């Protein structure tokens, strides 16, 4: 009941394994309100933003004193730097002493900066598209004015047209400069660069028209007027393409759609199991193994210390028969306890997707292998306290190296033999396959548990018979 109570308390009190990081976010005053709100929302997804307003120096001091865990400083003139082709740098400071926490901060910062990059580029592209709408109207007027110049117009009309074309040129220059550099786009960078090229061509052609109007010799500049009209029409077509593309598509055309295929097989809308359900098979394997190891570890040591071996020597039963009897007795006891645990898990919503028969066979094999480990401890322990200490050592090994909390793939290759010697390692994998996935456990699970059961039974028989003869 004690280990079960501890695990129940853990399951009930477990909320989130991710660290809570108290974070100060320092934003520049020149940041637009919409972008400011979006950045705050993005940062707040993974970091706990504090309400206090800090200056950079105050935030660094609070970080050093332990009042904050993370400080993030967004630089000034973000959009200006983007337009100039610079890379604005968000400064992120921490005072972490836990390497796992520091790794988590770096991962969250990487994801966050990617999202902020997309948000800034999307906003800048949206503003450029709004400006492109205005430019499109002015380009249409400019084409009409260039057509007027091909006819006879007065000097005053030429000057008025010249001023309009100069205004159009200024707008095109502003629009071109507002476009972010091509290398900042993850998607339709070619379209943006093509738009920039068309804008440069239109600016150059308008400069030639301005020179012709300044000279007053329109007859010799008709070819340049036609070229300028063509350049403006090409720019207008490229602007139409640019405006028709969603800003999100220009910034990040590749989207992701995640689906957990487990939901298809069981007809549910949920994804992965809740943490309590996912760890339930491991808890069952842990309780079965630890109960069996503890019972087995105390089984023979008491009889040897109390002198029961002398009675066994004059009895008609052999030591092998006595061991088989103990195996059977403890197996029945653990089977009853396991049935109660399985029923409780069902009440808690833990599924059993696979076969009940295979589940019972795996439970039986795990029990026999664990009893073998317990009996082996009992043969080498000199007292009850030693047996209990060995049982606790096996419990610690199981928790750390069985794949219960930490995946076995996370360890170095030389740890794998240690994991393979622990019955719970194979029990966790088998129970997860049967209960959560609904598939038959791999043959290695059955073979490894069988090998552990056979080898431990053989070693226990050999050592017990030696002790029996010396009694």
Structural notes for this entry:
The chain is mainly alpha-helical and 471 residues long. A four-stranded mixed beta sheet has the order 2-1-3-4, with helices on both faces. It folds into three domains: 19-121, abc type-2 transporter like fold (3-Layer(aba) Sandwich), CATH 3.40.1710; 130-251, Four Helix Bundle (Hemerythrin (Met), subunit A) (Up-down Bundle), CATH 1.20.120; 275-470, no CATH class. Helices cover 71% and strands 3% of the residues. The model has no long low-confidence stretch (mean pLDDT 81). Helix 2 (33-44) links the parallel strand 1 and strand 2 (48-49). The radius of gyration is 38 Å and the shape is elongated. The chain starts with a helix and ends with a helix.
Topology readout:
Elements: H1 2-13, E1 22-26, H2 33-44, E2 48-49, H3 56-64, E3 70-73, H4 78-83, E4 91-94, H5 99-149, H6 155-178, H7 189-215, H8 222-244, H9 247-251, H10 262-266, H11 275-306, H12 308-314, H13 319-347, H14 356-380, H15 384-401, H16 416-420, H17 423-437, H18 443-470
Parallel strand pairs: 1-2, 1-3
Antiparallel strand pairs: 3-4
Estimate the helix proportion, in percent: over 70%
Whole-number tally of structural domains: 3
Count of beta strands: 4
Q: Which structural class should the secondary elements be placed in? A: mainly alpha
Helix segment tally? 18
Mean pLDDT: 81
Question: What is the H/E string?
Answer: HEHEHEHEHHHHHHHHHHHHHH
Instruction: Enumerate the spans where pLDDT stays under 50 for 5 or more consecutive residues.
Output: none
Distance between the termini: 36 Å
* Cα radius of gyration in angstroms: 38 Å
Largest sheet: 4 strands, mixed
Spatial order of the strands in the main sheet?
Answer: 2-1-3-4
Beta-strand share of residues: under 5%
Describe the global form.
elongated
């Amino acid at each position: 009941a004690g280990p079960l109570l501890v695990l129940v308390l853990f399951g009930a009190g477990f909320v989130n394994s991710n660290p809570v990081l108290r974070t100060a976010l320092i934003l520049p005053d020149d940041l637009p309100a919409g972008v400011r709100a979006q950045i705050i929302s993005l940062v707040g997804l993974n970091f706990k933003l504090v309400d206090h307003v800090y200056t950079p120096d105050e935030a660094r001091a609070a970080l050093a004193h332990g009042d904050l865990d993370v400080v993030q400083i967004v630089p000034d003139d973000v959009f200006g730097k983007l337009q100039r082709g610079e890379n604005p740098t968000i400064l992120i400071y921490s005072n972490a002493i836990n390497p796992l926490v520091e790794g988590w901060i770096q991962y969250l910062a990487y994801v966050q900066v990617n999202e902020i990059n997309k948000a800034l580029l999307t906003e800048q592209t949206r503003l450029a598209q709004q400006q492109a709408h205005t430019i499109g109207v002015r380009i249409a007027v400019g084409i009409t004015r260039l057509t007027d110049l091909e006819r006879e117009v007065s000097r005053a009309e030429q000057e008025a047209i010249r001023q309009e074309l100069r205004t159009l040129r200024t707008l095109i220059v502003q629009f071109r400069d507002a476009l972010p550099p091509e290398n900042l786009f993850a998607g339709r960078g070619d379209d943006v660069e093509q738009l920039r090229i068309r804008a440069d061509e239109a600016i150059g052609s308008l400069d030639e028209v301005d020179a012709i109007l300044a000279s007053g010799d329109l007859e010799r500049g008709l070819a340049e007027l036609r070229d300028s009209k063509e350049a403006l029409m090409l720019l207008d077509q490229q602007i139409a393409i640019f405006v028709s593309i969603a800003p999100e598509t220009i910034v990040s055309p590749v989207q992701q759609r995640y689906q957990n295929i487990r939901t298809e097989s069981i007809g549910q809308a949920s994804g992965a199991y809740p943490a309590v359900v996912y760890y339930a098979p491991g808890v069952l394997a842990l309780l079965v193994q630890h109960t069996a190891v503890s019972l087995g570890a105390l089984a023979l040591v008491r009889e040897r210390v109390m002198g029961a071996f002398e009675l066994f020597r004059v009895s008609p039963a052999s030591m092998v028969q006595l061991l088989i009897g103990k195996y059977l007795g403890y197996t029945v006891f653990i089977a009853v306890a396991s049935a109660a645990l399985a029923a409780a898990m069902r009440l808690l919503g833990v599924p059993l997707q696979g076969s009940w028969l295979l589940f019972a066979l795996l439970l039986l094999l795990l029990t026999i292998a664990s009893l073998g480990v317990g009996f082996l401890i009992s043969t080498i322990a000199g007292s009850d306290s030693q047996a209990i200490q060995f049982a606790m050592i096996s419990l610690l090994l199981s928790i750390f190296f069985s794949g219960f909390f930490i995946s076995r793939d996370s360890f170095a290759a030389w740890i794998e033999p240690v994991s393979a010697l622990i019955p719970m390692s194979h029990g966790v994998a088998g129970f997860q396959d049967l209960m959560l996935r609904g598939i038959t456990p791999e043959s290695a699970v059955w073979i490894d548990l069988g090998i552990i059961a056979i080898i431990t039974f053989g070693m226990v028989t050999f050592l017990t018979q030696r002790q029996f003869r010396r009694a």
